[in-house]
Amino acid sequence: MAKEITSRSENYSQWYNDIVKKAGLADHSAVRGCMVIKPLGFAIWENMKAQLDTMFKDTGHVNAYFPIFIPKSFLSREAKHVEGFAKECAVVTHHRLMNDPNGEGVIVDPSSKLEEELIVRPTSETIIWNTYKDWIQSYRDLPLLINQWANVVRWEMRTRPFLRTAEFLWQEGHTAHATKQEAWEEAELIHEIYARFAEDYMAMPVIKGAKTASERFAGADETFTIEALMQDKKALQAGTSHFLGQNFAKAFDVKFADQNNKEEHVWATSWGVSTRLVGGLVMTHSDDEGLVLPPKLAPTQVVIVPIPKPNEAILEVAEKIKAQLNEKGISVKIDKDKKKRPGFKFAQYELEGVPVRIGIGMRDLENNQVEIARRDTKEKSSVSLEGADRYVADLLVEIQENLVQRARDFRKEHTSEVKDFESFKEVLESKGGFIHANWDGTDETEARIKELTKATIRCIPLEGSEPDGNDILSGQPGKHKVIYAKAY
Amino acid sequence: MAKEITSRSENYSQWYNDIVKKAGLADHSAVRGCMVIKPLGFAIWENMKAQLDTMFKDTGHVNAYFPIFIPKSFLSREAKHVEGFAKECAVVTHHRLMNDPNGEGVIVDPSSKLEEELIVRPTSETIIWNTYKDWIQSYRDLPLLINQWANVVRWEMRTRPFLRTAEFLWQEGHTAHATKQEAWEEAELIHEIYARFAEDYMAMPVIKGAKTASERFAGADETFTIEALMQDKKALQAGTSHFLGQNFAKAFDVKFADQNNKEEHVWATSWGVSTRLVGGLVMTHSDDEGLVLPPKLAPTQVVIVPIPKPNEAILEVAEKIKAQLNEKGISVKIDKDKKKRPGFKFAQYELEGVPVRIGIGMRDLENNQVEIARRDTKEKSSVSLEGADRYVADLLVEIQENLVQRARDFRKEHTSEVKDFESFKEVLESKGGFIHANWDGTDETEARIKELTKATIRCIPLEGSEPDGNDILSGQPGKHKVIYAKAY
Known about the structure:
Two copies of one chain form a homodimer. Chain A is α+β, with helices and mostly antiparallel strands. Chain A is built from 14 helices and 25 strands. Chain A is globular. The first copy, chain A, folds into three domains: 12-285, BirA Bifunctional Protein, domain 2 (2-Layer Sandwich); 295-398, Rossmann fold (3-Layer(aba) Sandwich), CATH 3.40.50.800; 416-485, C-terminal domain of ProRS (Translation Initiation Factor IF3). The two termini of chain A are 31 Å apart. In chain A, helix 2 (39-58) crosses helix 6 (180-200). At the A-B interface, strand 2, helix 2, strand 3, strand 4 and helix 3 of A face strand 2, helix 2, strand 3, strand 4 and helix 3 of B.
């Protein structure tokens, strides 16, 4: 297999597309803007999903499932929400096809027009709050801590696999609470879970912060975000958690009777991460040879390659190592293909990002050892057969730590602080990355900087947002020190 | 909580709806024919999904994800397929809404009309085979053993929660093979997996058989089915596995070069089970007090209820039992609510189908024992505290076995064999259930019997389909002995 991956330095965007395509993560489809998630890409998403689902359940959330269709009128109920989501969406208008009387094929049966059009959900606040109205009467029904794993559709004009697609897979949590305080704490809790997941499992360090008003979710009073830095020094918004106040409760008239039998509107949050995370994972760790996967999310953690090809003696040892590693909860594949050369296989597993490769040849067996290669640094070691399983288990932990440390170092290197607009522009163009700068807190300055430089305020960080000077553009007193970057 | 479940004898259909609603399995939604799957219903589906997914992966299948939309023209490619699925489907015609210039709300933006309409997938053979065309060139690319977990939409006119809904969740396997033999064996393998899952996990005995030509999946050369008998003596088609021959490969021009470099069309299967299984589970085991869940699929297997209310001594023992059971992989809930009465709680857990309830009161503790109640038979026993965990573990196994045995006995009792049409009608009306009868193998007789009696041929069973007489209606020589029933 020829790898033919464009190098990152040559064309980062093409490098990304090459990795996605050649490592077998996703493929284009016949439907504009929709991708096919291939087995390797889907297996990574399944691992992400399993871990996140555990974290949600451990904090008291349960899963449910709501309809994919939203009656058109529901979108209009919350004024900002409709602005944000009605623009580009898939609209179902008919429910039947018929044979074309003039020829071959099928046409839409005009008599099957729906009374009210249905929107394929771009997000589910409206249909869910319309349902919560029936489920919530008293404080005893609260909190509702519900999540759903689902597909959603947003008719994006410019799409890229995983990062921005018309259809994507995600989870969306929708919670209902008796008090503002409790809803706020829920939004914070999920924000924290997202950050922990990104750092501890994806090995992708993130900055936790709040979005500015203009970048908030349509219908939210506050949006918390985790922001990661990709290798091309652009930011990726990786997960958001919204405090919705009483906006949707008011739009759908959802009230509860409190302990004194007084009626009040319910407080809400919503929060989501999507298959976009797979794109973030690729762009954080991978290199010019292919995918680099953190061990905690790699579908295959260890591959054993017989050299030059499988024979009985080698396979016996391979099976023994596999059994020992499986015992430790480590997933192992033995490559039993007799036709392909080891060099070809090595390149294939590098491309697919398998964290650890064990090579076993006859001479290794004579010396009672195996060769162990790690994907992240490409270092190889000869390791005694006895204890090889412990060595591999430790190595997986080390690789996981190395990846997150490497990403932290990269971020540190590409994080700057500036005091004036000239430096801002220069740093943005020469170095890129995250730029801390004082902001006067106005929509106008934010919009103007975006217009002039394409950089946006990624967030008002939870830590270190005390202003210490004037706004870099307007010269007005700073309200927050924020983080700017160009972003996906 | 008032249970108010209609009894099965009074109105079976209403009983089913009551269970679904009151046990919290599902709820109606604002969208015609679509249901909301509530947390308990979804947790059951998650357990089914986890087990099936394991069985698929253990037999070499991998998961992937294909777009929800299918270009309209794709449906027409396979002649029978379009007949079967174009009739009632959700058609996306536009991709944007706009503010209504004449008033409030939003309307469809006429300028956003799609060049080609998109169908929300009713099943994915067409989009998947259009993709496989790019993935398959040579025998080395085969077999492809891919499954996806997804939502699908069929615009059904008459819907019932879980059993028949416009949108439902399912898995659909789509495999590609180099030989007819291999594809046929794949269809059989999955048929066997479905039957094993139904019997061993759902405790729902099924008959394995093949559908008649008129009941086959639209586009299949053979459809294998598993058929279960519900408590109202109607049959439920619970899962189908299709041998598709080369029909889709021909429709989408998918060929491979064999080892001699000769081109041939690829052989295919597809297979699926859906959230309909949740409905089948309810209708197989539940009673007039509520849900009865087989332990292997129950989200909560054991509930511990302090009597009359929790105190420190009781909770200490409860936590200890819980820890012991968790150790054995058994899921346990301790009801710590201090406000509700035990009687209320007992009724609630009966309604929700928790297989085993442990009651602990102060007098029990004095006697060093607990009270253990099983949901299936409602028997109670006083059990010594020491060894209570082993008792419960054994009891869960016993309940699982009892449920499947009870269902087998019920099916046996409601299975008949008839030799003439008068007896057929009489048995069908008086006793219902499965009726074995000789069939002449013609579409005409099959259709005529359906018209006269509403009974359909559920399958030509894999075992015992040798004819031993003439067709009950036509009097022509029997070709198969088949199984008739009224069905969902």
